[in-house]
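Known limitations

Files may contain more than one protein. Parsers should not assume a single record per file. Below, a two-record file is shown to illustrate correct handling: read the sequence, read the token line, then continue until end of file.
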Amino acid sequence: MNTIFPTDKILLRADKEKMLKQRGIAIWMTGLSGSGKTTIAIALEQELHKKGLLTQVLDGDNIRTGINNNLGFSDIDRTENIRRIAEVTKLFVNCGVITICCFVSPTEEIRNIAKTIIGPTDFIEVYVNTPLEICEQRDVKGLYARARKGEVKDFTGISAPFEASVNPNVEVKTNEMSVEESVKRILNKINI
């Protein structure tokens, strides 16, 4: 029997990337709730799709309702949330998928955990830098208002700290840049 690949071994990442004609990477967007992470991710995914590239967007809505639905927002749970997300992201990246992650990931420590798990050569950190007051204005779910009233505990930016990204690969300021400009800046960095 003539086969392209050995039948006794799992396919390598390189085999999958060759088939997809793309390199798997993690684009890790960090920023406050309401900063524009998911909006930019959706636009970025659409641009990459137009180029014929396979992507997967992971964000709080599709992770917290599924794989991490048993986690809260304590420091321990936030760390575990990001650890699990990073492990899932690594699986996608190893299959050659461009994985766009949209998570507050509020501390350098948490972001470094993700970077270590995924691998520094596959991890592109995008700091979606938006002032708190702008994020509050955009808050369609009313979470900031509820947090200010004490109804939501451990809410990043109000009752829990957010550490600005110290050395991101890309920084976008959504109060100064359009979604299109933000996507273009990211695309220029990832060179796709």
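...continuing to the second record:
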Amino acid sequence: MKNLLATMILGLGCCAAASAQTAVVTHVELQAVTSTGTSAWVESFPFTIRGVMVNDPEEMLDPTYNPGATASNLVGGQYQVFFQAVDAGDRGGTALWMAQNYNAMGPWIPAGNDYDTEWTNEMNRLMIDTNGRAFRKGDLIEVTARKALFYNGKRNINEAHRITSANDFDIRLVKANVGLPQAEALKLSELVNADGSQIFDATRATGGEHWQGMRVRLDGIRLTNTNGWGKTNWADRVCAVTDDNGRSLSLRMPLADLGEPPSTSTWFSATGILNQENSNTNGYELFVQEIGPVLNVGKSASGGVAVSFSSDYEGYVLEASDDGLETWGAVDLTPKKVIVIEDDGASTNRTYRLRKID
């Protein structure tokens, strides 16, 4: 993340002092795992934890009250927000989650754990600050947690699936609109081994654990299917991408409209939140918030090849392949937010990509 942002956040430390009765926990501490991917954090409640919101609730799940949820045994409205560490010495991110009707999750939940009409008040409590303003991504917040359950590889701050107020988590605005942390750039080889298995590192120095809960930009990918594009149910919103070495990863699509998907032959980047679902030691996926830069290839006015893309990519090289993605060579131009003009003799089968400089 940018040093400027870190410096700005540190300057706000006096504004978020926790009470003497409440411990202060970092994301590093909360998300620590053992060699088998289970939680290594020693539970102690309540605690406070700080970070910048990196998504709006409605990007991930629909928090709208469903009046028929209880009668139909549906979960109903759901709320999920990730917030990312910004303080010096801290790293990672944590999800906040709750649901309208916990009873729909299974018979092990005691009866009566559904909010019904009280759900709207709960959402107002979590989604609107004390000034009547909606919390939005880019806000620096402090969360007071009274419960935090470990599930499928990460600690989630939640209500432990009970509606009692003793399990509430609270959100306090420290400063509005401090800005999103800069997305850290990575490639599939930093998440997936050559044999296709995902990289799990209990020290969190490499692999999916290193970026879990954080804004990242995944570069040099192309879609292998568009199955989840434009879907609304969480379980259905999954597409698959690959890199030029055959590694693959799932993209979880947002509820926001991202337009038409890139073609399966187009190399692009996806920015979003690295999440972990369905396993303690793998199950890493990217929750997508932005697609780009799609490398658009066309003819220049002089008859050469024009390559355009949407963002500045410092630290990357623009490469081209003429043999079906087998051999790549650098294009002798620094990729910036400009039009790149090639020589007239460029191959009509040429494919372009951005690659992170090793």
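Parsers that stop after the first record will miss the second one. For reference, the second record is described as follows. The first strand starts at residue 23 and ends at 24.
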